[in-house]
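In the laboratory, one determines a bound structure by crystallizing the protein with its ligand and collecting diffraction data. In a computational setting the workflow is compressed into a single prediction: the sequence and the ligand go in, and a structural description comes out. We illustrate the idea with 4'-deoxy-4'-aminopyridoxal-5'-phosphate.
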Amino acid sequence: MLVNVNGNLVAKEKATISVFDHGVLYGDGVFEGIRAYNGRVFRLNQHLDRLYDSAKAILLEPPLSKDAMRAEILRTLTANGLKDAYIRPVLTRGEGDLGLSPYMCRKPTFFIIADKINLYPEATYRDGLALITVPARRNVAEALSPKIKSLNYLNNILAKIEAAQRGALEAILMTFDGYVAECTADNLFIIRKGKLLTPPTWQGALEGVTREAVLELARKRRLAAAEEPITRYDVYTADEAFMTGTAAEIVPVVSLDGRSIGTGKPGEVTKRLIGDFKALTLKDGVPIPAAGKPQAGKKKA
Ligand code: PMP
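The predicted complex, in structure-token form:
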């Protein structure tokens, strides 16, 4: 496997960054999780927009333009001969000293990993996932905007640990005032009387690219959909529920805190949306150039 470190494609074992990088010392950086299906990168531009908006929000000036980053991502996929992949671009503040100040870091670091990801066993997609609510709360939006996909995932990781300690694969994080925010790395939807509901991002959910795609698919199916605050009561009494995320895709949710949601089986609307989403991932996307072909935006050696 070749990893792209600051524009150099190096073997996985040689892909390293400095221990003085503030991405490591302080989690000072931003990242993305992107998927390629059958030779096409799904919603690449939306992911790049979120990456560059996240960087802007923390005043991190990327060392390469968005177009150059797009070309580097495609080049990394081509170099690894990947058609189906999970892609992880990371931008960090770069190497500095032991003080917190980002102004001591001369140049941001970037790296891109292209690999496979398999979050849940096949049975989860067939039978559905059991969620629990955990004590860890979603970061308060006023303290650190949840729209920033930063290298600080500790509250999500703590929630994941709390779920595992109770034998659950996944958890719902609540907001500080008791509303459903999202899962540890996925957005949540419920369906009530044929209407899709998902919490608004101002309450603490990440603006998920898959979430947006599902809202579009719902509109195409003429299903009513709204971004509304959701409580645990709403989830307990919903007809169906599912999670969305780039790595997880659409995962049916069949219970919360041991209480069955709807029939306790993946719902019909959820299954239809899973089918629609699969079809969308195959036709929507930026093509990965074949090896040996010159790429737009790539500097000549
Ligand atoms: N919420 C969080 C906290 C996430 O990290 C992610 C990304 N894995 C999502 C939601 C889902 O977003 P997307 O559909 O863009 O992957």
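The pocket of 4'-deoxy-4'-aminopyridoxal-5'-phosphate is lined by residues 33, 156, 182, 185-187, 206, 208-211, 244-247 (CB under 6 Å). Keep in mind that any predicted model is a hypothesis to be tested, not a measurement.
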